[in-house]
Q: What sequence folds into this?
């Protein structure tokens, strides 16, 4: 028997690809053993949400979107007394959560130790249906039902919800790719291709890991300006100012010791053509990380001779798992002390989720965030 | 003052691309301090020699070809009393030598620790002119002048010169790529693309490193037959029998646990198209080594989405340095105890170097070897 | 409701430390969902069992001992149709199983990826009580109830149960320590301290991983003789013949290139004093693995200056988890093709478990194995 | 023929252990091919100098002390036109240099890639005699003759000589140990044992590498106060306030997530007893770096069981080589932007080298520096 809490809450539901989102009213279930019910304060809008809306990925419908969220504990299910790190949890505590729950039993979870590759993992806001229990499984909502096995993190006292949501899933994604897989280290010269949320988070992590020089290749100019203003990147190359790959490669080489190229190139552009360009920017013996190739756009021309001759290490990283989210939370106080993360955010009401999606798609803003406090009840008139 | 030894010796000289090679008579210099003069017993013919002959690489002319050799110490220059490993050296000792001498001072030698990337290294049989001192700088000759800084190795007592020459430069190349860069380990499922000398050496090293299953994808059938007979590979896929990449990928998946694909794929085919095929054969989180892309044939279609989604590690390896040659020499007793290496060899006279080159180019034989004992003097009639 | 199968089976029960073991009759439960019931054919006796019997470790009583076993599927619980690797499972299949079940949720399981460090893992034959369901939780029994979450492996067709039990837990322990943590690679010179089961398994894995030279330091002479006969180790140093550590260090240095010491030293002796000796045997920049220090015997004199000056890498490895067992099973056909594993075994009846323990303790035999077929029913007179 | 430059310069010479140092006048040789003559501006006094003075290490006498220096190019030898990184060099440029010149030919230089282990490397201020050419081979002098093969670095424009000398050899030593060997990464909890120059440099590098928390265990209080003031360390434990190891271990555990202990412990104390304490502070699966055990004080009690049970990785690091110095120079702008390095320094005249040594030995100051501008000529009266 599921007990329901009153009153119902508002949730943004995707019922048809490319169709307008709908703010619907939904009942709230009392959390069962091991589960946690949280009120959502802020929910992030991610580039993946744009793809989901367009039906580029195979997902069930209807769903409540939103795989990035921060909120407060509403109710703790039986047996839940601490967060993932072992900190005590109480109702009212500010929390964030990893968006996915790997199965914990398969080859990828147990043998390969790559829980991000688990084929049956649950992902909030992506593969949990709105018409099945517990319904509230996306963060674009006033509440979310965090199922047993969720990695929930109490937000450290000196951080505000804005600090957490500003990087959204780009933060733990960068921890996985930039820190764990690419392995930036002190003194590295790093190129970041792309200045969207993943590029910004990756560049910040490159700084945090002690890179001696970070070259940010991106655009449009407002994004690069913002990056400059908050101290992200040492050299900025505007792809609209330098539309030719050859020019950009030359500028990157100019910015690296001995014109050898970068120790590490982080591809966060999502454009297949960035890969060939990035290989040219990487020094011999260097590392190229494909972090942005989430969509399968098919084959593009690439020269494999470069891999042999330059002894490249070309690596990929897909999403993140609990351990990356944990490390992100542990690193967040350092990041937020160094960069004014809140400047990345633009707030929207839940009702304006469509507009937030559109602004994300166009790149007009850096990071749209749905703020549930801007409208507290679905049935309340503006 | 260079002192010359009598009589002159015969050396195979390349004076013009695509032109016939010429067996010329050359004077022998007494080795200076730090140098060593060696009689060559056996010299290997490598696929790279075919490319050199065709002028595919930028090299000076004229040169004595031959970057693979084994022979006996003729004269030791002043100050040379041990081999690279510290074993005492005497005239008459059987020795092999690393084909290249890195500068030891540049970024690649000192900082990156990748001496194979040294831009000014000397390479016997490739970039040392025949018309300059010490002239005898290639192994296709009755003698070779090993310059100071050469890594010379006394051949362990239980090994014959045939054991050393059978794998030629493919041996240390595989040590570098397969063992050091790709890092095969016990229990791995390994695919080797290509059954020429590099593919054979790589598959042998995969076995030696404890791979649980080695799938050899190559051809023509005589090469696979030889592989089977000497115990190289557990599964053999003939590319002439299965000309379609899709079929080969399917067969490889069938041969891997859970049809996940191979833990490691070693590309030793030298054909750009093998790379896309190899990426399909690699399991998620697995490693793909581009070991055979020595020639720049330009870009081919490759799907970078696979790198991100499958979290591939795509690495390259270029040639080898002293440490790889050392490890190869240390591993050779194990290899030769396990595989009948001598079966790889086909012998030719120095005079028949053109034929040896042609047979290498056509793949008619596995490993042509010039045997100086088949004709001891340049001026002796057949 | 637990359904019981008839008739009862015999199980060797430890009810009091240092007291005689007792072969008791126990009921057999029909396996619940996710569980598997197996008949045990062979069960290994391990040095740890000697410690358990003496009460050196904190364990609950009474328990059925036995963390090493191989047997046949008796009944499959609901939902179990494949083994851990995805191979189909049927009643009658020969299987082995990992002795422990990590929780899958804690910091060690999820974040550190070191499931061997899980503090709440279940261990068959060690921390599962005989007086609680499912009672049959040790391998020294005619049957074992494999709880949900167990990693069960169908034994490959070309292997007999003897092949599996011969190395017992030493096999996956060596995979973890020797292959994963120490990381032996092709060409390494390796010293193994200790010639008991863990030393033998470690030396075998060093061979399998391509070590160029394996020096086995152990005793008594019958163990070294056996090692020699089955091809384990290239150099054998008898600690009874050379009782002084200084002599042994000298002999090891003599056996390594340039008298630099071994690339890797694997401590499998279990004696604290072996550590100081092993540090002397390790070359500068080399690796020392503490694999045998399972019992806390307190501090011994060690010189930390050696770690700094020699740039040692001193690593430890504790037990194993599913992935190591999997890799061991995958490597076992190679191991058994190379070494006659069955020669390690000495068989005992279940009734003679006390004698098997005593013989293990004294080192009189290499690997005592309880063979349930030597006496099929607990109530049958001899 | 060596050409001498006029006038002679002053150099601090060690002629007898424990005897007073003497400021002697010495002739200056015109640099030969590949060499560089530099005027010394600032020279560091290191703890090792104290040991050298006491005769704790086997060195030749007489020598000019000083393995840390920064100065200006006086004369460039033939063939020298760039620094180690390829930057153009001119007379008057501010430069620093790596204190040692590995041979570049031995097993350690070529095979192991650990040039810090080279047995025949030249070390300025340590093993170059004052009574042999080129005499001026230590930095406690108005000039130093940098022999061919020296790694010389032009100091980046935004750095002053003070920034370079403040960390002295502790900077590249920390790069080697903390960054390369221990491998601190973003989010790590790090303990630093010792608050002398090596401890300070290591803690700074831990911060630079993105550690989430740095616990500095040291003393006396003035050193910890300085650390606090310049932002080194997040938690400070005074060993004089907490003289018991048990208390310090408890405090460290309190400061780590889940009281698991630190991910990485950096021993920079130089006291053997710190090692046992550090092992207690390291979390299971964590890393302990022995960076300070430069002097052989013999064995101390250590419990090897901890290595096995906790799966520790205990590593050592010895000195540094060119690549570490290079990375230090590349990281220095980041370090100096973050920490006020100049506050570490206390200046002395060359004549007061004895006092500088004494103050270093007593720990009264953090970093004594000999400033040649405080007294320009040896023959000038005060």
A:
């Amino acid at each position: 028997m599921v007990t329901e809490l009153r009153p119902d809450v508002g949730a943004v539901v995707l019922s048809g690809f490319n169709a307008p989102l709908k703010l619907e009213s939904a009942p709230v279930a009392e959390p069962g053993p091991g589960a946690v019910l949280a009120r959502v304060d802020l929910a992030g809008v991610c580039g993946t949400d744009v793809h989901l809306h367009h039906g580029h990925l195979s997902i069930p419908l209807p769903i409540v979107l939103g795989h990035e969220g921060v909120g407060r504990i509403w109710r703790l299910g039986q047996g839940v007394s601490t967060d993932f790190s072992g900190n005590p949890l109480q109702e009212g505590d500010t929390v964030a959560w990893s968006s996915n729950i790997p199965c914990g039993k398969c080859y990828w979870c147990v043998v390969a130790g790559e829980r991000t590759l688990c084929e049956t993992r649950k992902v909030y806001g992506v593969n949990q249906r709105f018409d099945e229990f517990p319904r509230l499984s996306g963060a674009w909502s006033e509440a979310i039902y965090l199922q047993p096995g969720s990695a929930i993190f109490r937000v450290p006292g000196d951080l505000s919800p804005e600090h957490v949501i500003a990087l959204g899933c780009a933060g733990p994604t960068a921890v996985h790719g930039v820190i764990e897989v690419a392995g930036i280290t002190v003194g590295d010269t790093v190129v970041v291709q792309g200045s969207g949320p993943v590029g910004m988070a990756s560049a910040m992590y490159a700084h945090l890991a002690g890179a001696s020089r970070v070259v940010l290749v991106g655009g449009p100019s407002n994004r690069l300006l913002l990056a400059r203003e908050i101290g992200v990147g040492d050299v900025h190359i505007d792809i609209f100012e330098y539309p030719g790959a050859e020019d950009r490669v030359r500028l990157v080489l100019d910015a690296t010791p001995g014109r050898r190229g970068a120790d590490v190139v982080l591809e966060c552009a999502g454009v297949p053509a960035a890969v060939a360009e990035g290989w040219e920017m990487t020094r011999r013996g260097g590392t190229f990380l494909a972090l942005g190739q989430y969509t399968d756009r098919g084959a593009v021309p690439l020269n494999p001779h470069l891999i042999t001759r330059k002894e490249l290490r070309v690596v990929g990283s897909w999403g993140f798992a609990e351990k990356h989210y944990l490390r992100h939370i542990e690193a967040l106080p350092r990041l937020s002390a160094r960069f004014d993360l809140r400047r990345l955010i633009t707030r929207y009401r839940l009702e304006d989720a469509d507009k937030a999606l559109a602004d994300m798609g166009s790149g007009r803003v850096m990071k749209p965030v749905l703020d549930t406090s801007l409208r507290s009840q679905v049935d309340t008139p503006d």
In short: Residues 377-382 of chain C have pLDDT under 50 and may be disordered.
